[in-house]
Automatic annotation (TrEMBL):
PANTHER family per UniProt: CHEMOTAXIS PROTEIN METHYLTRANSFERASE
The protein's enzyme class: transferase
Residue ranges of every copy of the CheR-type methyltransferase domain listed in the record: 1-278
GO MF annotation terms: protein-glutamate O-methyltransferase activity
Organism: Rhodocytophaga rosea
InterPro entries, per database record: Bact_Chemotaxis_MeTrfase, Chemotaxis_MeTrfase_CheR, CheR_C, CheR_MeTrfase, CheR_N, CheR_N_sf, SAM-dependent_MTases_sf
Keyword set includes S-adenosyl-L-methionine: yes
Stated name of the protein: protein-glutamate O-methyltransferase
Transmembrane segments: none
Length: 278
């Protein structure tokens, strides 16, 4: 049997999708069966299995739970991101939030969390924005924590190497200042400069953990285009966990397509997707 044509039964899909939802909060309705089947073909190939029954038996075995679940989740998660995505957030950060936070605590380091950081574009953008502000408003000091559930994208983020096309929309002044060009004329890649890399710390985190193992004193939390993969009750539960990690008076950012309407949260809306913790 050709393993690239292995078919996933409804029972196998239900078993996998229920596990993924219960453990990671990601909802996979029946219409996602073809997508899941397609993405997991790579794992069947790597493990030399010819059926999804074999794969399920292994994934839920004692060995599989230790070695296979993370590669599975890496393939299931969607990781679309860009530098300076949703620029209105960064404009509001520079013109309103940073001046206010610095007035309130001029000597205290600013702590920022990119929750669901994907391959690093968001936390590095935050570091660049904060660095630009710090240079004209000393003595601002800052750090960025960045977390994601996917080890695959975290490894890419830590490496901080991107194709030149990924930074095409960034102003030339920032490109020259914050990106190093590869000497390889064929690959045409860039790398984030060491100073900005040093400002960002990466870690793997599952929002479904009972306790999120991160500090509880962030000034800013960005969780953009992440909760769209959760159902409404899970969204509310996750955002409340994130809010527990924000200082009173700190700020929370969602993606433009996300909403907290109907949720009970300690947040005051300032803009459609910008909130202050109350």
């Amino acid at each position: 049997m050709n393993i690239f044509q292995a078919k996933m039964s409804t029972a196998e899909f239900n078993k996998l999708s229920t596990f993924i939802y219960n453990e990671y909060g990601i909802k996979l309705p029946p219409v996602k069966k073809t997508m899941l089947e397609s993405r997991l073909q790579k794992r069947l190939h790597a493990l030399q299995f010819s059926t999804f029954r074999e794969y399920c038996d292994f994934a839920f075995s004692n060995q599989g739970k230790h070695t296979e679940i993370i590669p599975m989740i890496d393939l299931v998660t969607t990781n679309k991101t860009d530098f300076f995505r949703e620029p209105v957030h960064f404009d509001f950060l520079q013109t309103y939030i940073l001046p206010e936070l610095i007035r309130a605590s001029p000597s205290r380091p600013l702590k920022v969390w990119s929750a669901g950081c994907s391959s690093g574009e968001e936390p590095y953008t935050l570091a660049m924005v904060l660095q630009e502000y710090a240079e004209t408003h000393p003595p601002l000091n800052y750090s960025v924590m960045a977390t994601d559930i996917s080890t695959q994208v975290l490894n890419k983020a830590i490496t901080a190497v991107y194709s030149e096309e990924r930074i095409a929309g960034i102003p030339m002044t920032l490109k020259r200042k914050y990106f190093l060009k590869s000497k390889d004329a064929v690959k045409r890649t860039v790398r984030i400069v060491p100073h900005i890399r040093s400002k960002v710390q990466f870690a793997r985190l599952n929002f479904m953990d009972d306790v999120l193992d991160v500090p509880a004193d962030f000034d800013l939390v960005f969780c953009r285009n992440v909760i769209i993969y959760f159902d409404k009750p899970t969204q509310e539960k996750v955002i409340n966990k994130l809010c527990d990690k924000i200082k009173p008076g700190g700020y929370f950012f969602l993606g433009h397509s996300e909403s907290i309407t109907g949720m009970t949260l300690p947040l005051q809306q300032l803009k459609p997707t910008i909130f202050r913790k109350i």
